[in-house]
Structures are given as structure tokens and as C-alpha cells.
């Protein structure tokens, strides 16, 4: 099989497997996997900035929340339909990513981490400040009527699963396509050696800005979908741990691999879920597993697969 | 022959230190020019200002009739300048072919076949064809220098600035490098910063000598070779001593 065929077989195979699982999973795991797929979209968005472009942001929760509130506020207050609300969420995340990118990309390295962290905290506090509309920590519960997309009730478990899978597939194949494009290769070049990329004639700032906007928009799509599919929009999703989660998922799954964010999200979700069954100190088990994985597979699950068996993995 | 690159009163001060002082420099199209000078003479600072890595304190850089002093490096590269680093700066974790393809792609864009062909051609010219699948970081130092040159070639620049390209190369690699540069002379203008005098004497049409940030002498290799001032600068004797 050619490299291209192999890639499509692997990633298409994953989507097909998840589609089959829709019919065989017991209810509990059915809901979990739907959640994991939406969160994996968030991780894939984060991976575009961190894994492929080398931009370590500590503030992606603001993009997730921008998508979520950009969708939720018009749906809740104006009664906007699910489709239009989702588009509004995308637009809000893209706009925020553009504005934050223009400012934050004037810095690099540690300063970039701090600036994105601060912007994200500002976004979180803004949500609390406008409590009249956002209802602060309490959040907004979306009515069933506002969660109907093209006649399909997204609160129904199967519809929710299919919608999550659809979004996941779009994000997965978009990433796969992007990293094969000349522009995607330039992002990797910037990650590897920014000065060299500049001196090959590439406008590094513009490429990084495009990466942040795409990354923020994909994160926002995940946030908007999360709100629509699970019916809740809350300020806790804008808190700092929601900026750390995608970093962990991507590190565990393999930064700079297309499939890694999904593997990392799935792994961590079930790690916490299973260890919570054993002990109330479940974060201890999760933490230990993370330390072990970092020691023995520093490039994450996807990175380790690429290193050992499949050098072609995109 | 028309002038491809010139500088007027180009200066760079780092705090109290003047690294480059009011240099007027003209490079005609099609020439191989060597830039030499003792350590600390300001050679790398000077070429860094040409390509836009370092902003000058004063003065102007004109490329192909256009004042490029205010342009960022990537815009100058887009106009046809290329620069290979003194300290090897390849994409170590990417394949050799991908390093060169990145250099070719800015010019050729989405035309995959053309990029592949330009990559193969550039690698062939520097003799790295058989290593195209290796990671750039796994190459020997000398081969990484040649990869830098291949990345320069793949850009098809109008002006190729080579910062100490033969540093760390073996004698046979230097011989191959000299043949390569001679072959290039018909296609592009070359500015060569070089320590190896044998390479300079053999390749350069004209030599410019920098000393303490100023142009000390300019002439044919033979003239420079015979110049008492140049010898004094290199040997540390004469007026300043």
C-alpha cells in the first residue's frame, strides 16, 4: 500500500470502528465515547498549535469557552436554532483567536505561555463579570428545543453519538489534509527551526497566526458541540484546568501526530474513570500513569508507535 | 554589469562597540565576491544586515535597485536573496529531502512534481542524493554544510550568501565544493564569507577585506594577496599595533 493509502486506511478505519461501536457499546460507554470524541476535537485543535507549530499555549480554554458561549448565549437568550448557534460559536472562537494571536504572537516561549494564560483568565473573569447573561458559575442549561439540528434531537444518545463522530471525522481528516499541504509542512518547519524557516522566505508570523486561528476555531467547534450535545454551558469550562487538559491529552497521545490527540483523550478519560472505581485518590493513580508514560514513552502513544513500528504515521 | 546589491554608510553598533562602520559596498551581478577579514572584523554582522537578520543602526541596503533596509528577512528572500548559516542550521528532525523541499516549495508552491525535481537536482549537485531519506540531524557535520548549500540552491536565488561554507569540510569535500561554486557562477551572484585563503584565491573574482568594521581593501585576489595593509591586518602589525 502506498503511504497515502495507508494513512487513509488507518484514519478511515478508526472512524469506521467508532461508527460500529455506536451500535455495540453499552449505554454508559456509549455516552463516554461520544464525550471523548468531542474532547478529542478540542485536543486536535490544540495539537495544531502545540504539536505541529510548536506554540505552547496555556490558554486554550478561552477558545473552547468562546465556542461554547458563542453558541450558548444566542441559543439561550435569542432562541437561535442549533445550526446557526453552532456557526456563531465558530465565529466567536475564530475572532477571539485572531485577536489573541495578533497580540500574543509578539512573544515567544515562556512569555507566550504566560500571555495566553493571562488572556484565558481574563476571558474566564469576563464570563463571571457578565453574570446577568452567563449566569456565572451556575451556567446555562439549554432547552431541548434549542438542541434540535435539522429535525434531529441532539439530546438523544444515538443522535449525539453520530453528531460527535461526524465532527470528529471532519476534524481528523482536515488535520490529515492540512499537514500534507505545503502550508502544513511550513508549520512543522517553524516548530523545528523558526529562524531557518524565516530565512527560507516564509512569513513566520503569518503562518503562526493562521495556525492559532485554525487551532482556536477547532477548539471552539469542540466547545460549541459540547454545549449542544450535552446541553450545558458553564464557566468551569473556561477555567485553567481546561487549558491544561488538552496539553496533557496531546502529550500523552503524541504531539504532532494526527491520531495522537484521540488516543491521549481516550486514555486519560478512562484512566481517571477506572481509577475512580478503585480509590477516591484516583488522581494519584492517574498521576503515576502519567509519570510512567512520560518516562518510557516521552513522545506519547502515537509518537511511540511512529518511532517503533510506523515511521510513516502523519 | 549592473549592480545587484549595494550598501551605503551601513553601520551597526552594539552598545559602545561599533561592529560595522559606514560600509559602502557594491556587488555587480554575476560576480563571485569573497568577503574576508580577521576574526571579529564584522563579516557576519555585515551579511546579517544584508539578509535582514540584524537591523542596522544606520545606512541603507539596496537590492536590485530597491531599498530593502526596512524589509523583514522573509521578504528579502522572496526578492531573490538566500543565506546559508555559518553555524549549521538545518531542520535536524526532518528528512534531508524535506529540508531541501521546504527551500524549493516557497518558489514552486503546490507543484509537487516540480518540487520533487528541484529537490533531487539540488541534492545531486552537492552529492547528497544517496542520503535524501536520512534525518538531517544524523548527517556528519560536513554533509550538513553541504545540505545548507543545497537548500540555498533549491531557492534559485539571484544572490547566494554563503557564510563560511567550507568550515569543517575535508580536503576532498572542499575540492568538490569549489567545482560546485564554479558551476554556479553562470546562474547566480555569490557572496562568500570565507576563512580558507586557498578557496578565496581560487574562486573569487573580487575580494573585499573588512577590518574593525570598515572596508580595508578591495581588489582582485592577486592584489589583495600582495597588499601590505591586508597582511598587516592579519598579522596584527602595522599602524594599529
UniProtKB/TrEMBL annotation, chain A:
The chain crosses the membrane at residues 12-29, 49-71, 78-104, 110-130, 161-179, 209-235, 247-272, 278-298. Keywords: Cell membrane, Membrane, Transmembrane, Transmembrane helix. It is a multi-pass membrane protein. The keyword GTP-binding does not apply. Pfam families: BPD_transp_2. The keyword Cell membrane applies. It comes from the Bacteria. The lineage of its organism: Bacteria, Pseudomonadati, Pseudomonadota, Alphaproteobacteria, Rhodobacterales. This is Branched-chain amino acid transport system permease protein. It is found in: Cell membrane.
UniProtKB/TrEMBL annotation, chain B:
Pfam families: ABC_tran, BCA_ABC_TP_C. PROSITE patterns: ABC_TRANSPORTER_2. Keywords: ATP-binding, Nucleotide-binding, Transport. CDD domains: ABC_Mj1267_LivG_branched (cd03219). This is Branched-chain amino acid transport system ATP-binding protein. Signal peptide: none annotated. One of its GO terms (molecular function) is ATP binding. The lineage of its organism: Bacteria, Pseudomonadati, Pseudomonadota, Alphaproteobacteria, Rhodobacterales. PANTHER family: ABC TRANSPORTER ATP-BINDING PROTEIN, CONSERVED COMPONENT OF ABC TRANSPORTER FOR NATURAL AMINO ACIDS-RELATED. Residues 5-237 form the ABC transporter domain.
Amino acid at each position: 500500500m502506498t503511504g497515502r493509502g495507508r494513512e487513509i486506511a488507518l484514519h478511515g478505519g478508526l472512524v469506521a470502528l467508532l461508527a460500529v461501536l455506536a451500535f455495540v457499546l453499552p449505554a454508559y460507554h456509549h455516552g463516554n465515547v461520544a464525550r471523548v470524541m468531542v474532547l478529542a476535537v478540542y485536543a486536535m485543535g490544540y495539537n495544531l498549535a502545540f504539536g505541529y507549530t510548536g506554540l505552547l499555549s496555556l490558554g486554550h480554554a478561552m477558545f473552547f469557552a468562546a465556542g461554547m458561549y458563542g453558541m450558548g448565549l444566542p441559543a439561550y437568550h435569542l432562541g437561535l436554532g442549533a445550526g446557526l448557534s453552532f456557526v456563531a460559536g465558530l465565529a466567536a472562537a475564530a475572532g477571539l483567536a485572531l485577536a489573541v494571536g495578533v497580540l500574543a504572537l509578539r512573544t515567544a516561549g515562556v512569555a507566550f505561555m504566560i500571555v495566553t494564560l493571562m488572556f484565558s483568565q481574563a476571558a474566564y473573569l469576563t464570563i463571571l463579570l457578565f453574570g446577568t447573561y452567563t449566569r456565572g458559575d451556575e451556567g446555562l442549561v439549554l432547552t431541548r428545543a434549542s438542541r434540535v439540528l435539522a429535525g434531529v434531537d441532539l439530546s438523544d444518545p444515538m443522535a449525539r453519538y453520530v453528531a460527535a463522530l461526524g465532527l470528529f471525522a471532519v476534524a481528523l481528516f482536515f488535520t490529515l489534509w492540512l499537514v500534507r499541504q505545503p502550508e502544513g509542512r511550513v508549520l512543522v518547519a517553524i516548530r523545528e527551526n523558526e529562524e531557518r524557516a524565516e530565512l527560507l522566505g516564509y512569513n513566520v508570523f503569518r503562518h503562526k497566526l493562521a495556525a492559532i486561528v485554525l487551532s482556536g476555531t477547532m477548539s471552539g467547534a469542540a466547545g460549541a458541540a459540547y454545549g449542544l450535545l450535552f446541553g450545558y454551558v458553564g464557566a468551569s469550562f473556561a477555567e485553567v484546568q481546561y487549558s491544561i487538559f488538552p496539553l496533557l491529552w496531546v502529550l500523552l497521545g503524541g504531539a504532532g501526530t494526527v491520531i495522537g490527540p484521540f488516543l491521549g483523550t481516550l486514555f486519560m478519560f478512562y484512566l481517571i474513570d477506572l481509577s475512580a472505581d478503585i480509590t477516591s485518590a484516583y488522581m494519584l493513580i492517574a498521576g503515576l500513569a502519567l509519570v510512567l508514560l512520560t518516562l518510557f514513552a516521552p513522545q506519547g502513544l502515537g509518537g511511540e508507535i511512529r518511532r517503533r513500528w510506523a515511521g510513516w504515521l502523519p | 554589469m549592473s549592480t545587484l546589491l549595494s550598501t551605503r554608510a551601513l553601520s551597526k553598533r552594539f552598545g559602545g562597540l561599533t561592529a560595522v562602520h559606514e560600509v559602502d559596498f557594491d556587488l555587480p551581478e554575476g560576480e563571485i565576491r569573497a568577503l574576508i577579514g580577521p576574526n571579529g572584523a564584522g563579516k557576519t554582522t555585515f551579511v546579517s544586515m544584508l539578509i535582514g537578520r540584524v537591523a542596522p543602526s544606520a545606512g541603507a541596503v539596496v537590492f536590485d535597485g530597491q531599498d530593502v533596509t526596512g524589509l523583514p528577512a522573509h521578504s528579502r528572500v522572496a526578492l531573490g536573496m538566500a543565506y546559508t548559516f555559518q553555524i549549521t542550521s538545518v531542520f535536524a528532525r526532518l528528512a534531508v529531502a524535506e529540508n531541501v523541499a521546504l527551500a524549493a516549495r516557497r518558489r514552486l508552491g503546490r507543484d509537487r512534481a516540480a518540487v520533487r525535481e528541484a529537490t533531487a537536482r539540488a541534492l545531486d549537485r552537492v552529492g547528497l542524493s544517496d542520503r535524501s531519506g536520512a534525518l538531517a540531524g544524523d548527517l556528519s557535520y560536513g554533509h550538513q554544510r553541504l545540505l545548507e548549500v543545497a537548500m540555498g540552491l533549491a531557492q534559485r536565488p539571484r544572490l547566494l550568501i554563503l557564510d563560511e561554507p567550507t568550515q569543517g569540510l575535508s580536503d576532498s569535500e572542499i575540492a568538490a565544493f569549489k567545482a560546485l561554486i564554479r558551476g554556479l557562477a553562470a546562474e547566480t551572484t555569490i557572496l562568500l564569507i570565507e576563512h580558507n585563503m586557498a578557496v578565496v584565491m581560487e574562486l573569487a573574482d573580487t575580494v573585499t577585506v573588512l577590518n574593525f568594521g570598515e572596508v580595508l581593501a578591495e581588489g582582485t585576489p592577486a592584489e589583495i594577496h600582495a597588499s601590505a595593509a591586508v597582511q598587516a591586518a592579519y598579522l596584527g602589525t602595522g599602524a594599529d599595533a
